[in-house]
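Table S2 (text version). Query chain:
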Amino acid sequence: MATLSQREPSPIPTGRLWAGVVLAPAAWCVAELLGYYLVSRACDRGAASTVAHAGMTQDAVAIGLGVVAVVGLVIAAGNWQRVRKRSTPNPAAAWGRAHFMALAGVVASALFVLGIVLFALPPLLGNACDQVR
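Corresponding structure-token output:
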């Protein structure tokens, strides 16, 4: 069993691995929170609205943060390709942290990009203010 000092260094910098894992879920969280806040303010009847069109605002938030999530997916896919190329001579090598984080980044990023796409659909199909009241 290899100790920490005997292990070979990670083929991918740690920051890049974390970016692939965290960017898309963080973008989804911000899209949900910011979208809900802006739409609730736009649809509030009693207050002076600072947001003109709730649906367009929600879609603009989804597009902007969808780009961030896709960047996270591209980083994660690049990490996974790089890790696979590195382990091609010995495919039976034990999975390390880089392997796990690269694959987890691809799976999580793909799911959260899909979540942002689904977040953008309701304003296109109906009135966003109907669901807030």
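Notes on Table S2: The chain has a mean pLDDT of 80. The longest helix spans residues 54-86.
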